[in-house]
Structure formats: structure tokens, C-alpha cells
Amino acid sequence: AAAHNGTAGSATVAGTPAPARPPATPEGMALAYGSLVLMALLPIFFGALRSVSCAKSKNSSEMPETITSRDAARFPIVASCTLLGLYLFFKIFSQEYINLLLSMYFFVLGILALSHTISPVMNRFFPANFPNKQYQLLFTQGSGENKEEIVNYEFDTKDLVCLALSSIVGVWYLLRKHWIANNLFGLAFSLNGVELLHLNNVSTGCILLGGLFIYDVFWVFGTNVMVTVAKSFEAPIKLVFPQDLLEKGLEADNFAMLGLGDIVIPGIFIALLLRFDISLKKNTHTYFYTSFVAYIFGLGLTIFIMHIFKHAQPALLYLVPACIGFPLLVALAKGEVTEMFSYESSAEILPHTPRLTHFPTVSGSPASLADSMQQKPSCPRRRRQKSPSAM
């Protein structure tokens, strides 16, 4: 269980009282923090690259969900309500039963997310003569002219193999709650979030990051809600790495943690800057690399401050100024501020880009980062899911 969004600090699993344990060694802490930073960078880097391929898709059913300025403004409010609701649930109802339901929920989403993540890699290992058959899962409501598709999911034999492999990780997580299985699901959720959730322009990104900056600071420093939920929440919504790995091996249990919201939220902004770089047609990725370095700086500063003050830190407090400020300074130096803020990501895809209809929540809340993946699980293949409540 994560300590809270943005903390790379130790906490207990499933919210149980922390037993007396020796402090982590400097070597163990360095290994844990370094591993967390590396794991955070992987989904951002590869998710951003995959977001470019996804954005170039010609079929509207294969396109990512686009976050508009209206969505961005509502996002912190929805996330706050979800976080507070979970806090009340954990206070009123049995933590054991709630986590059982959440485990089943994330078991299904985790398998789908991990399968989608490994599918492009696995396809390279299948022989050319592999018997690959096509399948379609169709679910409709009504009849005749009123018949409406609810789910229209197309897949093939290779996808079934990926699902089978992902299911092994899912069962491992469900039975053991092992930190490695947790990280595999967490990385898959993060990569899917960065790949499939697109900001339509830089202004929207600033609104989203600015709103969640206030959200993160308030719920971490202003109340104990974030920390309480994070300690009680048993789901792969965070990346963890043991600080006592060198002493206890794979059975280590003194974890450093980082919430997925601290990866996905800056990640979708960094992916937007990569698409902006490509739109400039200068064969350089200046803004992408600048924001990437800014993320490393912000996350490193978070860990440093937390280590100095021995207190939970909201990572977005440091990540947001860095990820917005560094690229903006570069744009000012190059005289490209106007181009940056006039760039419309959705305009380069199709004029009618699907809007975000489900709000993935961040930091100690059930991060439904695979909602978009459920609707459009893959760019290379037509897979869609319609919702009657879609905007």
C-alpha cells in the first residue's frame, strides 16, 4: 500500500501498524530511490513514443481519449471527491472486504493493461507461420433499428497468448500481493495512461497540472486523508521498491513508494511536448528531452526533501513547476512561446477527437487508468467499446 501520492517513503502493507524495524541502510535507500526513479521514467519515455504512433492512427475507433480544458478543470474536483469518498469508506466499512473487491477489480484491469503493454513486444517473437486467427466479441442491446453496440472487441490468437501471460502475473498478484507483480501492473497502468490519455494543447496541460498541484499539496499537507487512504488502499496504484532488499532479498517488506499519479500526470504533458516537437518538423526533440530532464530533477528533489525532513511529500509540488517551467524557459529562449501555446494536438489527428469520458483518479485513489484502454485497448487493431453515457 502506498504511503501517499508522491511519497517515496516507507509504509506498511495493508495499513497495519508498523512493527519496530531497524532503519534502512544508506545503500538500501539509494537502491530503492534509484529504482523508483528508473521505473517512473520507463513508462513516461515509452508511453510518449507510443502516444505518437497512437495519435497518427487513421481510424477514429483507434484514437486515444483527449483531455480538454473543461476536463482538466474538473479533474482535481473529481479526484478530491473520489479520495474523500474512499477515506469515508475505509473509516466506516471493513478494510478487508473493500480491499478484496478492489483486488478483483484491479486484477481484471491489470491483466488487460499488461496484455496491451506487452503485445507489441511479444508480436516480434511469434514465427511468421504462427496460426493467427481473428476473433470478435460483440455485445449489443435492443433489436432491429434500435440495436446498439455496447462492446465490439476484436482480437486474435496472439492477443490471447498475451492475455494468458498477463493472467499468470494477475494470479500471482492476487494470491501473494508480491511487490514485483504490483510493479508490473503499475508500470502497465502508467504506460497505458501516458499513451492513451492525450492533452489537446499546452494550455490544457497547464490547467491540469496546476489544479493537481493544489490538490496534491492540500490533501498531503492540509489533512491526513491522503496518507490514511494510501496506507489502507491495497491495489497496484503505486510503484514500490524495498529498502531492505540487500538484507532480506525478494521477501523484503520495508518499501519506498511512488504513486502512479506522479508518473501519469506529468507523463501526458511530456508526451504532448514530444508531439509538439514532431509538429515543428525540425528533427529535434528539444522540448521532450527538456521536460524529461525536468521530471528527473523534480522527482529527485522530492526524494531529497523527503529524506531531509522525514515527512511525506507531494511530488507534484516539485514536478509541476519543473515540467512546466523548464520547457517554457526553452521556448522563451528560442522565441517559440506562441507556437507552443497555439499547437493543437487533436487538430493533427482528426477534427472530431473523442473526449475523455472517464476520469482516472490519482494518488491513493482507484486509478482507473485502464478505462481508456478498455475502450480502445490497442492502436494497431480496431477495438472499441461504446458507452451510453459517453459525452
Automatic annotation (TrEMBL):
Residues 1-21, 363-391 are annotated as: Disordered. GO terms for cellular component: cytoplasmic side of endoplasmic reticulum membrane; lumenal side of endoplasmic reticulum membrane. Its main location: endoplasmic reticulum. This is HM13 protein. One of its GO terms (molecular function) is aspartic endopeptidase activity, intramembrane cleaving. Residues 379-391 have a biased composition (Basic residues). GO terms for biological process: membrane protein proteolysis; signal peptide processing. It comes from Upupa epops. The chain crosses the membrane at residues 30-52, 72-90, 97-118, 196-221, 255-274, 286-309, 315-333. The gene is Hm13. Keywords: Endoplasmic reticulum, Hydrolase, Membrane, Transmembrane, Transmembrane helix. It is a multi-pass membrane protein. Pfam families: Peptidase_A22B (PF04258). Residues 363-377 have a biased composition (Polar residues). Belongs to the peptidase A22B family. The keyword Lipid metabolism does not apply. It is found in: Endoplasmic reticulum membrane; Membrane.
